[in-house]
Design brief:
272 residues, alpha/beta, 8 strands
Length: 272
């Protein structure tokens, strides 16, 4: 008898159904491209890891290795694709990435294009290759072609002043499960490069949270500083991305250097 199975839980399952959690969902970036780092982070107890194929040094093969590393843990894998391209999105889906973030979505038309990329015809343009792909576990997932939408979570990233203005319309697009807000690029488009904590940027993030929730969709934000993460949780964020593997390694190794070598003033080992 052929082996039959369903894929693991998708990101949207954290917010509804038997896998839902009764609190703000928390996760982190894996930007190093390393499957070992992804596995370590997946076992840390967070709800999800976000594999970054936009800014991280990754290709399809390394994303596949990371997906496999995370699969052994009770942690959802999410992949941020490089850009809103139907060919790339098809490839990441076929790898078995069920939960995607599509960056730089500025309009409802951009959002609709992302939806089309994750759906099979006639609802979309995703190419049919399930018999050849990990997404359907090589046709071991029963009726995958008809059920693919059950497994896929599509989040789009709002990270510009234009997108903030269009947040309600973007969130209202059928097939969009939620929105992820990127304060860094948002600040840059507001002529506040590097000032994610500027009051105008914070206000824009909070306005977007309210607009997306009013549309009935889940909304999250990137916030590595705890006080800012807590502020966005209080504003209604459903999920928060609270760190990154490379940032944790950078700050942790700096702390060790400061402890045993001292700062760069030449004063020797720091005393604690």
């Amino acid at each position: 008898m052929p082996f039959r199975l369903d894929p693991p839980k998708s990101f949207k399952d954290l917010f509804a159904g038997e896998h839902a959690v009764d609190r703000t969902v928390a996760g982190m970036f894996v930007c190093s491209g390393d499957a070992g780092a992804a596995e370590i982070c997946a076992g840390a107890g967070l709800d999800y890891v976000l594999i970054d194929a936009e800014h991280g040094p990754v290709n399809l093969e390394s994303v596949l290795a990371q997906l496999r590393a995370v699969a052994g843990y009770d942690c959802v894998s999410v992949v941020r694709v490089p850009f809103n391209d139907p060919v790339l999105i098809k490839q990441f889906l076929d790898l078995g990435a069920q939960s995607l973030i599509v960056p730089m979505v500025n309009t409802a038309d951009d959002a609709a294009a992302a939806v089309s990329a994750v759906r099979y015809a006639p609802a979309g343009v995703r190419g049919v290759g399930s018999a050849l792909a990990r997404s359907a576990r090589w046709n071991r997932v029963p009726d995958y072609l008809a059920r693919a939408d059950e497994f896929i979570t599509l989040l789009v990233q709002i990270e510009s002043a234009e997108a903030v203005a269009n947040a309600a319309q973007i969130a209202a697009v059928d097939g969009i499960d939620g929105v992820f807000i990127g304060p860094s690029d948002l600040a840059a488009t507001m002529d506040l490069l590097g000032q994610q904590d500027h009051p105008d940027v914070v206000a824009a993030v909070k306005r977007t949270i309210a607009d997306v929730k009013a549309a009935g969709k889940i909304v999250g934000v990137n916030a590595f500083v705890e006080s800012q993460a807590r502020e966005y949780i209080a504003a209604g964020a459903d999920f928060v991305n609270v760190g990154a593997d490379v940032a944790i390694l950078a700050r942790g190794s700096e702390a060790l250097a400061a402890k045993y070598i001292g700062d760069d003033s030449g004063t020797g080992p720091a005393s604690y």
